[in-house]
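Retro notes - structure team

What went well: the batch runner handled both jobs without manual restarts.
What didn't: labels got mixed up in the shared folder, which is why I'm recording both outputs here explicitly, each with its sequence directly above its tokens.

Job 1
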Amino acid sequence: MEQRVDSRGKQELYHGFGNTMGLAVELAGTPALFAVFGWWLDHRLHTGHVLLIALFLFAITGMAIRTYYAYVAKMKRHEAEMPWNRR
């Protein structure tokens, strides 16, 4: 007997992996790019490592705020789809 593979379930799984990988790159890459830009500015302006640290912390704070609000919005959408909220 031939087993049918649930292609919709696999598709959702792979979509979840893709979203997670994209978020991981975004969370790691954005502060790194800000830090590199800060290092470059520090090098050009001879300011030590002030701008490197400042831009890195700015990026970390911004990503944390963005992630929080994206999570809250996603949970509100999810809650709205629940059976106890349908009318």
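Job 2
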Amino acid sequence: MTRTSAEGGPTGFRRDRLTWLAYVVLAWFAYLQGAPGLVITHLRDELHLSYSAGGLHVAAFAAGSLTAGFIAARLERTVGRRTLFWSAAALMGAGTIALTAGHAAAVTIASMLVMGVGGGLLLVAIQAALVDHHGRRSAVALTEANVAASIAYVVLIVALSLSAVLHGGWRVALLASLVVPALAWWTNRRLAIDAPPPSQVPQGRLPGVFWIAGAMLVCTTAAEWCVTAWGATFVQGAAHVSSDVAVTLMVGYFGGVLAGRVVGSRLARRYEPAHLLAVALVVSVVGFAVLWPATVPAQALLGLSLLGIGLGNLFPMALSVTVALAPGRAALASGRAVSMTSLAVLLAPLTVGALADATSLKAALGVVPVVLVLAAAGLTVVQRARARGPRTPAGAPGALREGELDRGEGEAERDRAESERTT
């Protein structure tokens, strides 16, 4: 692996109030984002849904996020990042309430769509805020944010399992989460969540290599959501266990995601995200090789755990690689990244569901290693493009000094001012 420069070391990264707010709200978003794939088993039993109809719930959430990714940058310019942040959280909460109140497929799918729009807007605002706020150290912030998301996934499993034991039902577990954004807003309602002035945002199109990295991001997200959406259902059939036990076994997957991201967040301070992404792809393939032939709960649990460790690092590392290709344009790059990943979340569960209806769920999940290989190919192309990419000559108008690439403009200006004072 290649170590990053000393400027990206741990001493330069500080978690302030805005950073912690972003982590907490992203964790709440992840809690609800992970819910569709887990409550599908219950909705299929309650509403007598096919695999394809069950997949529509995850797809509806993704379709809403896809739409949000395209409109987020314009909305941010119109209403401001702070208003967008809290309005998106309120919209996601409203969709959650509607989901728990719905007892027909049309209502639950529409509720997922509303949750997706609100969640997608919220995700764009959070990612852009972290990138703008932490500059070149945004890889650390994004990885730590996804550690918080992983903790939320584990909490979701525990909450669903506990509600089943207490006969409270999955709806109680979802509604209880609404306390989080309410408290977050009340304690941070005056906190500034600002975007850079439009005059400081570079204009023009996103570079071509960004779209290659975006395709890689689509593949990694597709692999993750094939398992997130259908992992519990697969284990239920493969290991011959009940839906509640299958959901409980998914703690191995989400626990693996948490462990992987904790380790990844530490390694991101020392190594390039692209190299960590390559390692995560290899671990993901190994985990799938263990899970796919599983016929007993123990082997399924081991496979899910290894898959979680690998897949858990794919999104934050791939996102860091992708957004870094458009320095200074965090909102636009983050919005496009959310749209592309939402497209993957939209298509992957639907594709697996349709293939499962035509063949079997085990055969349908064969798409996972395929997209992982495609992601590895995309990463190779991106790294080669970065290696031979043109650099702005030193001293040219508007050129950044060495070490300022991928940093926020404010941070670069502060360093320049400090340099002038010391001289």
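One thing worth noting from job 2: The radius of gyration is 21 Å.
We'll revisit the folder naming next retro.
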